[in-house]
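To close the section, here is one more complete example, presented without commentary so you can practise reading it yourself. The ligand is NAP.
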Amino acid sequence: MRLNALITINYFMNKILVTGSNGQLGETFRYISEKFPKYNFHFLGLPEFDLTDKNELKTYFKKTPINYIINTAAHTKVDQAEEDPEVVKKSNINILKNLCELSYEYAFKLIHISSDYVFDGTATKPYKTNDTVNPIGVYAKSKAAGEKTILNAKVDAWIVRTSWLFSPFGHNFVKSIFQLIKNKKEINVVADQIGAPTYSIDLARFILNAISQKPNFKGSEVYHFTNNGSTTWFDFACAIKNEINADCIIKPITTRDYPTIAERPKYSVLSCEKTKKEFNLNINSWELALKDCLKILNH
Ligand SMILES: NC(=O)c1ccc[n+]([C@@H]2O[C@H](COP(=O)([O-])OP(=O)(O)OC[C@H]3O[C@@H](n4cnc5c(N)ncnc54)[C@H](OP(=O)(O)O)[C@@H]3O)[C@@H](O)[C@H]2O)c1
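Output:
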């Protein structure tokens, strides 16, 4: 292909639709979108737009040509999911069936966000992208089934698994602990689950830079993206406390002391080596990312 033809293709590959736009990661994309002026961003989310409605999606794509969909939409209430598997299936699997089917007709590439919960948490070293998945709850099983839907459809797609998302947006651990330690004298936090916190701003930036690096990617790939390092919820909470100089006492407890409806993986650190290598990436530590997040929350 001639160089100017390639440049023309890349120039017009600039329309990005972010779904789940009113959630934590969706809002993050909105927040950083102005730093990526070369892209023309569109946002869709509940309650205005239900992605499970295939006809509505078709009507949308007829009017709005899109080159990439970044699907952050999901049912993410892990405990509630145990009581309503049908609703979870709609958002975490059926949406993907719709998007995969429509991607042939409307020629877009899909970037889908998945989760560390596809693993059972019995590992003792970071999970690689090709390690066998073994999800343990309704939410986790639906995320694994969503991945399978994409891989079986053989569309152009990246599945980006992440873990322990935090940011100034939506609902997340950092925002909850930030409020609790400002308002309580003492709190208990689970100290026997290990994972890698991920700043949603770093994740969103990675995805947009990755699209710039490989705009014409073909086939499907699984990537992992988390901040560097790992920790427990207890140590994560202590790091938040230290950053804001709070007096609240944080006590470590076990998962058994704090039973939840859905079981969580004990260890869910994801290896990001493949991602770092393929995209020539340096990823911030979660501690540095936390400082940035708290700076924004403190304003
Ligand atoms: N948060 C984490 O720690 C974490 C960890 C690993 C992976 N992930 C994955 O990362 C992605 C983003 O997570 P997040 O923290 O941004 O979740 P979130 O805040 O719950 O955002 C998800 C958004 O999707 C929307 N949604 C659900 N069903 C929809 C539908 N049928 N049509 C349109 N929108 C729909 C939700 O709307 P409602 O709120 O109205 O339902 C919500 O606004 C998800 O795929 C999640 O599985 C998250």
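Once you have examined the tokens, check your reading against these statements. The mean pLDDT is 95. The pocket of NAP is lined by residues 20, 22-26, 45-46, 50-52, 72-76, 91, 95, 113, 115-116, 143, 162-165, 170 (CB under 6 Å).
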